[in-house]
Amino acid sequence: MENAVPSSVEQFVVVAASIFRSWRDEEPPRTAHRYFG
Hints:
Layout: H1 6-26, H2 29-36
């Protein structure tokens, strides 16, 4: 992972953020607290 190309890292972050937003919109806040503390 240390040798990953910055562009790939940025793309991964963008995709992860998009998935997290969709998941957060679908799931209630309580579920998020249960997984993220």
